[in-house]
Amino acid sequence: MSASTLSIVASPCFPPVAYVCDGAARLGCGRTGMPSSRGYARVRLDPVVGSAIAEAYAAAPVRDERAYPAYAAFCQETVRQYHFLVGRVEFGGLGVSVRIVDEDPYPDVASMVDDVRRRRLKVWSSAASDNPHPYLSDAENDMFRAVHDVFGHAASGRGFDRHGEEAAWLKHCGMYSSLAGRALTTETRGQNCFRIFGRGGDRFPAQKAALLPRVFSDPRLAWKTLEATVSAARC
Predict the structure, then answer these.
(1) CA separation (Å) from 98 to 112, 121, 124, 146, 188?
(2) Closest listed residue to residue 17, CA positions, set 115, 107, 142, 106
(3) N or C end: fewer C-beta atoms under 10 angstroms in the chain?
(4) Taking the domains of the chain in order of start, what are their residue ranges?
């Protein structure tokens, strides 16, 4: 099977969690013109693109001061999302109970989404993973893991394979400003592509505070590439 064929193979989907999608829209998005939740079912990540992103992540420094403005915006916007996520429903929040645990809490996305539908979530502790972030504190990193599982995966209806991670990145991009989205790209698209296509044997890579080339952090370009790939496959 060719790489171009692999890029459009169906990937598991599930119905996006309705109250999460409604809450994300209510919170407000950093960008306009992003697709509706139903559009994420067709997202695929071409392995050629994934390999190029993996190489860019590998080449990036662990810490780059030029990335700090993006990470500062990313941190501020993530904390806002987290407080909305755990805030009491009667005061406008989503009322999700988040618990930090010392081991990977979910064997698959189905068990995670089942918890989210019940307004609860377990997050694997950043401190326990022995992979410190060069910019974010462990608490800030835990907050990001929580909001990405909910607003990325549960809201897009996609899992943890390469296509699902691409969809979660695209979905969550809609909740960040363009500046913060560049840090989001490093934290999600960059790390996941390195893990899947890099030389680390599917191990989670060392975390970095750096920015990937802009061509990899523009969600609208990713959508255009996806549409072109799908159209070519149908011809």
Answers:
(1) 12, 5, 11, 7, 20
(2) 115
(3) C
(4) 16-228
